[in-house]
Design goal:
The structure is a single chain. By secondary structure, this protein is an alpha/beta fold. It has one domain: Aminopeptidase, CATH 3.40.630. It is built from two helices and five strands, in the order E-E-E-H-E-H-E. It has a three-stranded parallel β-sheet, with helices on both faces. It has a two-stranded antiparallel ribbon with strand order 2-3. The longest helix is centred in the N-terminal third of the chain and has 18 residues.
Length: 92
C-alpha cells in the first residue's frame, strides 16, 4: 500500500529556476508513478493529480483516510530541490 505525494502545487510553486517550477515536475512524476503502481496491481493513492493547493492537514488527511494509520503504508513525497538543503526521510 502506498501514498504518492506530488508535493507543493497550486499557490506553492516549490523551487523555481529559469521559469521551471518544482510543482510541475513533482506532479508529472507522481502521476507517472501512480499510474505505474496501478498497472502493477499495487494499492496506491495520490494526494493531488492536478495543480491544486493542499494544506498540510488536507495532505495528511488524504494519507490517513485512504489506508488508515497502518504501519505498512509507504508514503512517497516527491521533491526536486533547486540546490543546497538536505535530503531526509520522515517516518510517521
Amino acid at each position: 500500500m502506498g501514498i504518492n505525494d506530488a508535493s507543493h502545487g497550486g499557490s506553492d510553486p516549490g523551487a523555481v529556476s529559469g521559469g521551471l517550477r518544482e510543482k510541475d515536475f513533482t506532479l508529472q512524476a507522481a502521476n507517472y508513478m501512480y499510474d505505474r503502481f496501478k498497472e502493477l496491481g499495487v494499492p496506491v493513492a495520490i494526494t493531488r493529480d492536478d495543480d491544486t493547493t493542499l494544506s498540510r492537514a488536507e495532505r495528511l488527511s488524504t494519507m490517513t483516510d485512504t489506508f488508515g494509520n497502518d504501519s505498512k503504508v509507504i508514503v512517497l513525497s516527491n521533491h526536486i530541490n533547486a540546490g543546497g538543503g538536505d535530503s531526509y526521510c520522515v517516518v510517521l
